[in-house]
Structures are given as C-alpha cells and as structure tokens.
Amino acid sequence: MKTRLLARAAGTAAVALAFLAGLSAERVARAAPRRDTAQPYRPLDVFAEVLAYVQNAYVDETRERDLVYGALEGMVQGLDPHSAFLRPDAYRAVRDETTGEFDGVGLEVVMKDDGPIVVAAMADSPAERAGLRTGDRIVKVDGASTRDLTLPEVVRRMKGKAGTPLALEFMREGFRAPQAITLVRDRVRARSVDARVLDARAGLAYVRITSFQDRTDRQLKAALDELRAGLGGEIRGLVLDLRNNPGGLLDQAVRVADRFLLSGVIVSTEGRGRRAPEVETAREKDTEPRYPVAVVVNRGSASASEIVAGALQDHGRAVVVGTRTFGKGSVQTVMELEDGSALKLTVARYYTPKHRSIQDHGIDPDVAVEAEGPAPAAPPPPGAPPGHPAPAPRTGGGPDAPLDRAIAELRARL
Questions:
Q1: For the chain, which domains are there?
Q2: Which residues have a catalytic role annotated?
C-alpha cells in the first residue's frame, strides 16, 4: 500500500537482512564471513554482528524486533526532518489523522537539530487550548528528554487514549527556562473546513482550512455553496485562512487550488536523477467565479498549505497576507510494510508554478503583517451554518491584524 502524504511518489528496493541470534558473541565474531569490498550492503555484516553482541551480552534482555525497529528509526530519521520509519501503532495513527479523527493532543511536530519543533496545534485540540504555538520546542514528554528520543517515539508518546494526561515541557523564544504543562488527551476531530459570512452587504466571506484530509475539497465546495445561500447571491470576495495548517494530502491541496484556477500549473514535483517532473495542472470544470481572494498565512502554514498559497500567488489569483510560511517543500511517499509498519520517505521536492522551491524558505506574503493574535479567527458558533453572520468586521488595530488587512485588501478590489 502506497500513500502520498505531503506532501508523495516512487519505487522501493527490498533488502534482505540476515540477523544472527542465539549465538555467543565470541562465536559470532569468529564466524562472521569476510566479503569482497565491492559487494553491496557490506555494512549489514557489521549490523548483524552488533545485533548479536547486544542480544547475547547486553546487561538486560532485549527483544529483536525492538532493536531492529530502533535501528530503522535512527537510519531513516538521519536523512531529513520528514522521513521516518513508522512502527505499526505509529502508522495506524498517521492513517487516522488523514481521516480527521484520532486520540491525542493535536500537535504537528518535526525534528530539528535541537529537538522536536511544533509546526502547528490543530484547531480546537488540547494543544491549541493550552496555548502551544508554532516554533515551540518540546523539551520533555512525560518526563523523558526528547534529546534521547526519535521523532516517531515523540509522536508515539503523545498519542494515547482520550482522557489520559500528558506532561510536556517546552521552550519558547523569550523563555528563560522550559515551561511545564499537563494536557488531557482527547478525541481530536479535525474539522477540515470552517466558513462564515464576514459582510453580507459587501458579499465578503471567510473560509478556514485547518488541514488537508481526504474530504477537504468536497467540504470546501459545500461550504462555498452554503455561503452563497447565506449571502443570497454570489460571493464578491473571499478570505482563505491557512494559518496553522500543517498540510496533509497532496491531491487535496491540488484540488483546492484547482477550484480557484481555470488553467495552468498548480505544482510540480522533481525527484532524484533526471526523471521528468510530475506536473499537476488546473482544469476549467467547477472553477469558482473570479472574485477577489486573500490568502492568510503564518509560520504554521506548511506543506500542502504552501502549495495552495504559492499556486494562487504565482497565478495572480490571490493576494497573500501575513508572515512567511514554514518552508516544508518536500514530498513524502508512505510505503506499507508486511508487518504493519511503514516507511515515510522523502522522494522529491515540489515547486510553485514559477518554479520556486519552498523547502527551508517558505512563501513570502505579498502583504506582510507581523502582529497577530494568539489564534486565527474563531469558527462559527456550534451548529451554525456556514452562512451564519459574523460581527461587523474590524478595520484595523484589533487582535487579528492579518485578518483585518486581508479584509481591507478585498474591499480595495471590489
């Protein structure tokens, strides 16, 4: 089974590993054959030798599977911050997240040199309610230092049954020492799309996409149709809020961008070697009318969010407002393995229609707005339809300056 997360593509090579077990360390050392230096995978001889030493001589009893999984995690994590070997339970959690429901605290993290860094806290999750932000560095998870953990181990420790506590320590720019907090895990139900009317008279509407899941594009279409019903006519201007959206499925990012573009390149992905790039293009069918669009982004906008923002920006279809995005411009393929584990491997980098690389840089906004409140604008009240009217929009100086500026940009284009 092969899944393209974002952001996904390519082939695999199977390597058979011969593990030595049940022998004494001395016997393994004497029996290990010497191979020609030109033979591929010769370092696996050393791996098997070390595995046998650990199994036979380590002070505590060890399990072969745990040792092998640990070695695989270390090998893949060393490639880049986004590749990972996923144990079966971690892989099940990844699949749950793409459907939009899972037990945990709702944190999206990546591994940097100084430890796991928060990309975004999901909307209405325990992490968001606790005030965790993009850029926070997780120092400890349930008392264990993250310096001693791989990224899959950090994620695995944060997952857990709803109702159970999770103790975290985190550092933030400006802190003198790590801050300790306790979260209570919950069933995180990620609403992929929230929408509301901003100004019925002016025909202005607001849509927030919190992540790109397997039904995001359908939810977006339904929200836009209901907004039109709430306005009693066509949308005349739209704020598309992608703040703190950590990404998700590549195909959904392409479909969302396609909804606002008549034609042209949406994104291209380029892998290793000289293979021709894969190019995703827009189609005229089901394209929205060409009303003004303002896309709001911040440091927590990553991966699939950057694809959408970059495509609309390059085509001149939207003005991008906010701060520079996260800068995750690599494509991961998830390959399911026979024991239920999986390999998430970076196989390509993606580029905007003007062939801009997002990796390690991000999308620069057209209109930079540094000051912003602790979270994007709140979704409608529970149970309210997307056409539910919001309070009169602010004109600036409020707690959500990027949203205010996006609305001002729309008004200037009416």
A1: 10-83 (no CATH), 100-189 (2.30.42.10), 193-413 (3.90.226.10)
A2: 303, 314, 328
